[in-house]
Amino acid sequence: MLHNCRDFTRSLPSPVKLLPATVGSDAVPKGMGYLLAHVPAKNSKGFLAVQTFYTPYLRTTAIDEWDLVKASNVRVKDIESDSITKCKDAGTFACRAKHRMNSSKDVIVHSILIDDKCYTGALIPPDVDPSDPKATPATSSVLALESDPEFAEQC
User: Fold this and answer.
1) How far is the C-alpha of 148 from the C-alpha of 1, rounded, in Å?
2) Which of 17, 77, 108, 145 is the 20 to 30 A CA-CA neighbour of 98?
3) Taking the CB of residue 5, how many other CB atoms lie within 10 A of it?
4) Which pTM value belongs to this model?
5) pLDDT higher than 90, residue 98
6) Rounded to whole angstroms, how far apart are CA atoms 150 and 135?
């Protein structure tokens, strides 16, 4: 589900080491790219196209909160403060990066907590027009419905 991927090498190593979410799960990413599916967000488009790191050792996608800011086309230096607020009783969180001059440019993502860890909502898959030459059942709901009867029945 990543596009524009770049593998890390000795000359271009990973800039991060992913901290363990569970005991013994630290990992150094093998590469990075952009999520083909989008992260739901409170903005005019309703989503963010977010850069993420890839490692075969994690079953989930790790997203740095600053990558949410970058995906919003807001300059990092224009952010006055950022915060993650966890509402443990409700099982939710809010990630907010406050714009220095314009609150309409604040970056806000609301989602869920599982075992006190932040997870985005269900990713929004792309929906390419079926006449597009790059359209496949993985990128077009129309082609997915046509090619997969089980999927069509569930919809």
Assistant:
1) 19
2) 17
3) 11
4) 0.57
5) yes
6) 20
